[in-house]
Amino acid sequence: MFTIQKTNKTLSTAIKSYATAQGKLNDKAHVLAVSVIFHAAEHGDVRPLQAFYDTLTVNNQTSFKQYIRRIFTENPQVSCLKYSSKEAKWSMQEKSNEARKALVLMCEEKMINPDGVTFKRFYERENVQEAAILLDNQAVLKRLKSLIAQAKRNDDKVTSTVDSKVLKELETFAQKLEPMATAH
């Protein structure tokens, strides 16, 4: 049964106790978040990551997805995890072992003890900045796809091998941008 804290002294004590407990819980959550990302990258096994994710509140699930998206957006060489909103499941992307090795190293060197500037704890997200990045990526992807479609319609005008190569590179870039622009 719950009891209302009625005096200033008991309220103050309860608030200090809560703050201490919450700080310890947040520390543990961050260690677990980085550990399950490390495990997925090291072993190609997303089951612990999925189990951890499933225990999070909706707000912390959003923070976790944005944490991973931010890392992969800023460091595409380590992008090897994918979240499906439709299935509510995590999976490994079809990536080389190099991306997974780079992510393992990043977990050990930068993510586990974040500097608070470049790397933060998973629940320390900047909603406005994250939304701007997402919208920017979506706008860029939409325009890029439009340009690619236009170029394909004018295929008879794409005569040089340089033009063909540039078009191929744009298509490859659009495929790489897609997961970043569509991540929720």
Pick out its properties.
2 domains; two-stranded antiparallel sheet; 4% strand; single chain; 68% helix; 184 residues; 6 helices; 2 strands; mainly alpha
Structure, described:
- This protein has 2 domains: 7-125, no CATH class; 126-184.
- The protein is elongated.
- The chain has a two-stranded antiparallel sheet with strand order 1-2.
- By secondary structure, the chain is mainly α.
- β1 and β2 (89-92) form a beta hairpin.
- 68% of the residues lie in helices and 4% in strands.
- The longest helix is centred in the first third of the chain and has 36 residues, at 8-43.
Q: Beta fraction of the residues? A: under 5%
Q: What spatial form do the alpha-carbon principal axes imply?
A: elongated
**SSE run:** HHHEEHHH
What is the radius of gyration? Answer: 21 Å
Instruction: Compute the number of strand runs.
Output: 2
User: Count of helices?
Assistant: 6
Write the layout of secondary structure elements.
Elements: H1 8-43, H2 47-55, H3 58-74, E1 81-84, E2 89-92, H4 97-111, H5 127-153, H6 161-182
Antiparallel strand pairs: 1-2
Helix pairs in contact: 1-2, 1-4, 5-6
Nutshell version of this structure?
The protein is mainly alpha-helical.
